[in-house]
Fold this protein.
Amino acid sequence: MAYAGPSKGPGRKALWVRVPPPAPGVLALLALLVPLALAAPADAQRRDFVGRVVSVDAKSLAVKDRRANIVTFVRAAETVVEGTSSWDAIAAGDKVLVRWTLGNASARRVIVLESAAKRAH
């Protein structure tokens, strides 16, 4: 006897239909692009550096962090000094927080956290 196939026909077959996702609307596109437009450019990234002052002069400040990394920051015309009277009052041994701009290592703000003179007492 020869095989004649299934007796009730081929049955149901699964039909797979791939539906493409809907195209992004104007609002969705704006929601993606607005934060990028408002964000600061990558070349103006800002960083903080905390450590003890190793040396200071009229144009630069060298700071050593807790891992013994020494970074020299350049004083800019718009550099703001907090925690002491002026840039000239910063002394070696002071603990400072330097807020600086990545790329040119210019100090935007120098905050004296602990003075070396107060620490000695």
